[in-house]
Write a structure and sequence with these properties.
Shape: globular
CATH topology of the largest domain: Photosynthetic Reaction Center, subunit C, domain 2
Number of helices: 12
Strand order of the largest sheet: 1-2
Largest sheet: 2 strands, antiparallel
Number of domains: 2
Oligomer: single chain
Order of helices and strands: HEEHHHHHHHHHHH
Structural class: mainly alpha
CATH superfamily of the largest domain: Photosynthetic Reaction Center, subunit C, domain 2
Distance between the termini: 56 Å
């Protein structure tokens, strides 16, 4: 009798476990047949990601006529060239995207809305500049889809997907306290690959090394085992962030070849440089405005990476162009942002694996299905 009582729940649990383990995988072909260019996903994961990437319904369009916000309100340093109604619509939208629980008081000292006494208001200004900069100057990565505050925040004061520099004094953070090989972390795909790759590629300007075309081409060893580990570590970050595997961008029979890569590889190339720009300009400025409790264990401010926007899908919010409903977040009528280095300024022309090609190659000229 006792075994029967215990056996039934155990049997049910076993059936549920096996059913989950044997869940049918959905396969999407990305390139010519025979090359193995496919993406695999489980229906359960697809449903979960669809829930996480829901797009909020935009507020009704505002009247563009009437007094300008900068004429009606005090201390309007951005968006002042839009109408009072357009300005109010944008403010309410930002509140819904970033602070739905706290409301306008999260940034403003009501009823003295013109005051700059709260740090979130100062941060919000920099964020508006950043969003405009992305939508206007980084179209090689965001295209016409663009971004809004919702793309990263998803109703949270601080985006859930951010990173800080690791605290090297933490005995649990590094093996033996000295090795660059950190303990397995989610950011490196739960592997023993380096977990400080974000500092090298998304804050610094290190180039990703993939594979050489010639063995023993020279004696400089520009593609060392150490570089390979860091490259694979960064690729793990991108794979986890976008929910894709290597051949979403690469033809794995020739990682080095741009001509045999998919167009998404060039998009990713610009994405890496966009994130570097933002981490070293906007977010470096934001760090000077934050209280200590917003800083990381090493005393630095929050920074972004691929997952901040993508959150598990290859296009944030599945490519829904939210920004089309908020043209004031695309560009200002007067310049308000000093951009970082030109997207092409750090290109290493000696490295084939670091230089996107525009000519149509074996796969580069294909029309993408995703």
């Amino acid at each position: 009798m006792q075994l029967s009582r215990l056996g039934t729940p155990l049997l049910i649990a076993a059936i549920v476990f096996l059913s989950a383990a044997c869940e049918k995988t959905q396969t999407t072909q990305l390139g010519p047949r025979g090359l193995g260019l496919v993406q695999n996903a489980k229906p359960h994961d697809i449903a979960m990601l669809a829930e996480k990437n829901k797009v909020p319904v935009p507020l009704p369009a505002a009247n563009p006529d009437g007094p300008r916000a900068g004429e009606f309100y005090e201390n309007v340093q951005l968006l002042g060239d839009y109408s009072k109604s357009e300005f109010g619509r944008t403010m309410i939208s930002i509140k819904n995207w970033v602070a739905p629980g706290q409301g306008c008081g999260y940034c403003h000292n009501a009823p003295y809305y013109e005051e700059d006494t709260k740090y979130p208001k100062l941060v919000a200004r920099e964020m508006i500049k950043m969003v405009r900069h992305i939508n206007s100057d980084w179209k090689e990565h965001v295209g016409k889809t663009g971004v809004t505050c919702w793309t990263c925040h998803r109703g949270n004061n601080v985006p859930q997907k951010i990173w800080f520099k690791p605290n090297d004094n933490d005995p649990h953070g590094m093996v033996a306290g000295r090795s660059p090989m950190r303990l397995p972390t989610a950011s490196s795909g739960n592997t023993g690959l380096p977990s400080d790759v974000l500092e090298h590629y998304l804050l610094g300007n290190d180039n990703l090394r993939i594979v050489g075309t010639d063995a023993l081409a020279d004696n400089t060893n520009r593609r060392s085992i150490k570089q390979a580990k860091y490259t694979y570590g960064m690729m793990m970050v991108m794979s986890e962030s976008l929910g894709v595997n290597c051949d979403f961008c690469h033809n794995t029979r020739a990682f080095y070849s741009w001509e045999q890569s998919r167009p998404q590889r060039a998009t990713a190339w610009y994405g890496i440089r966009m994130v570097r720009d933002l981490n070293n300009t906007t977010l470096a400025t934001v760090a000077t405005l934050l209280p200590l409790n917003r800083m990381g264990p090493a005393g630095d401010g929050p920074k972004i990476y691929c997952a901040t926007c993508h959150q598990g899908v290859n296009k944030p919010l599945y490519g829904f162009p939210m920004v089309q409903d908020y043209p004031e977040l695309i560009a200002s009528k007067t310049p308000d942002y000093v951009p970082g280095p030109h997207p092409h300024s750090d290109r290493d022309d000696d490295e084939e694996d670091e230089k996107p090609v525009t000519k149509k190659g074996v796969l580069g000229g294909m029309k993408s299905k995703n």
